[in-house]
């Protein structure tokens, strides 16, 4: 029976929709939820187990014993039919996780589908209301401690505000939804539910670091921001389709990590800095949780004189795994800690530089120059 069951399941995997994980899209799933009838990757199977057997019963396709009725249920359902059942009403703005996404996105997507049944009942999708209010833990700018703060999101007013005291009537800060970006950063914050909000202030990037005690809460806030932004974009650009507008809701950093950077002076040495690449905007910080960067620049294209090169110019000191970021105004000498980091940084820089600047990119660069009163390439010291 074991060999026959395994062959039967392997045959089912070849059917349309079953060759990838039903929840994240990972190829070659090795697990299944036999009462739901879906094929799963190892990571998503782990989340299914945490739901409890009253919701999802998980087995290995190859290692576990399968009963005849369980095989027939898998045959009768499969990933495509399960998707029709459990994803009937997924909002366009809701972020569906992929295999590389953070755990909180994966877990809350799975819980929303099978535990809370959010996508079969729009009344459960509170993040679509255009208004959200609640408490999040926010890092202070000076002491870096996280304190509970009351946040209010208003789609109508295009704002995300927070108050530094419970009984305060005047917000400590007001951010405009169309000017902010949100990305999950659990490793940086040291919390599985960590979220970074970035926004522009006077031509420079500002960062706000948040987390919620419950994964559902932080994902709801994230999707509420995305939903509000999409609604406003639909009004502003009525002829654009959702697929185009969805690209403007939120984005993850192309890459982040530690690099050593040499200063501009002839006698300056290398200093370790935290680098973040957000689309074309390259920023560096003393540490990962700094509220604002020490420097930033807009990475242009090859046609504008930008390049990334192995090593450093002749006569210059190289430390570690060095490379050079060349701009029309200056050559930036950088160094990674190992070959893997070097290869990854060079690859991502090359991917940015080979693409021509869009009108939006040029507008961002012009905004930086106008606000800072300086060349956008000279504020990266």
Q: Helical residue percent?
A: 25-40%
What general outline do the C-alpha atoms trace? globular
Report the major sheet.
7 strands, antiparallel
Number of helices: 10
Strand portion, in percent? Answer: 25-35%
Mean pLDDT figure: 93
| Topology pattern, helix = H, strand = E | HEEHEHHHEEEEEHEEHHEEEEEEEHH
**Rg (CA only):** 24 Å
Return the structural class.
Answer: alpha+beta
Task: Give the spatial strand order of the biggest sheet.
Answer: 7-6-5-4-10-9-8
Number of strands: 17
Low-confidence stretches: 374-378
The end-to-end span amounts to 68 Å
Quickly describe the structure.
This protein is an alpha+beta fold. 30% of the residues lie in helices and 26% in strands.
Structure description:
- By secondary structure, the chain is an alpha+beta fold.
- The chain is built from ten helices and 17 strands.
- The strands form three sheets. It has a seven-stranded antiparallel beta sheet with strand order 7-6-5-4-10-9-8. Strands 14-13-12-11-17-16-15 form a seven-stranded antiparallel beta sheet, with helices on both faces.
- It is globular.
């Amino acid at each position: 029976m074991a060999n026959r069951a395994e062959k039967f399941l392997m045959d089912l995997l070849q059917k349309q929709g079953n060759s990838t994980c039903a929840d994240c899209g990972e190829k070659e799933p090795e697990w299944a939820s036999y009462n739901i009838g879906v094929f799963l990757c190892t990571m998503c199977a782990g989340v299914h187990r945490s739901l409890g057997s009253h919701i999802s019963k998980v087995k290995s396709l190859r290692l576990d014993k399968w009963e005849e009725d369980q095989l027939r249920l898998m045959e009768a359902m499969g990933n495509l039919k399960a998707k029709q059942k459990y994803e009937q009403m997924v909002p366009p703005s809701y972020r569906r996780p992929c295999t590389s996404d953070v755990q909180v996105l994966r877990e809350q997507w799975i819980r929303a589908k099978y535990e809370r049944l959010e996508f079969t009942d729009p009344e459960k999708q509170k993040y679509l209301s255009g208004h959200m209010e609640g408490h999040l833990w926010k890092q202070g700018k000076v002491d870096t401690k996280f304190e509970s703060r009351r946040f209010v999101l208003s789609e109508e007013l295009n704002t995300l505000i927070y108050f530094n005291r419970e009984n305060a009537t005047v917000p400590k800060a007001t951010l405009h939804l169309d000017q902010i970006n949100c990305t999950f950063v659990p490793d940086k914050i040291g919390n599985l539910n960590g979220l970074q909000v970035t926004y522009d202030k006077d031509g420079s990037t500002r960062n706000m670091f948040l987390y919620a005690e419950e994964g559902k809460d932080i994902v709801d806030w994230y999707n509420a921001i995305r939903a509000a932004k999409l609604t406003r974009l639909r009004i502003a650009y009525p002829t654009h389709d959702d697929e185009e507008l969805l690209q403007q809701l939120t984005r993850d950093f192309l890459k982040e990590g530690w690099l050593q950077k040499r200063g501009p002076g002839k006698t300056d040495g290398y200093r370790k800095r935290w680098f973040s690449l957000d689309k074309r905007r390259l920023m560096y910080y003393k540490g990962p949780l700094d509220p604002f960067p020490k420097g930033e620049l807009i990475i242009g294209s090859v046609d504008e004189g930008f390049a990334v090169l192995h090593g450093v110019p002749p006569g210059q000191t190289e430390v570690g795994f060095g490379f050079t970021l060349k701009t029309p105004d200056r050559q930036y000498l950088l160094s990674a800690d190992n070959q893997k980091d070097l290869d990854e940084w060079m690859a991502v820089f090359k991917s940015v530089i080979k693409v021509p600047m869009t009108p939006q990119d040029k507008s961002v660069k012009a905004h930086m120059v106008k606000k800072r009163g300086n060349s956008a390439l000279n504020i990266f010291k």
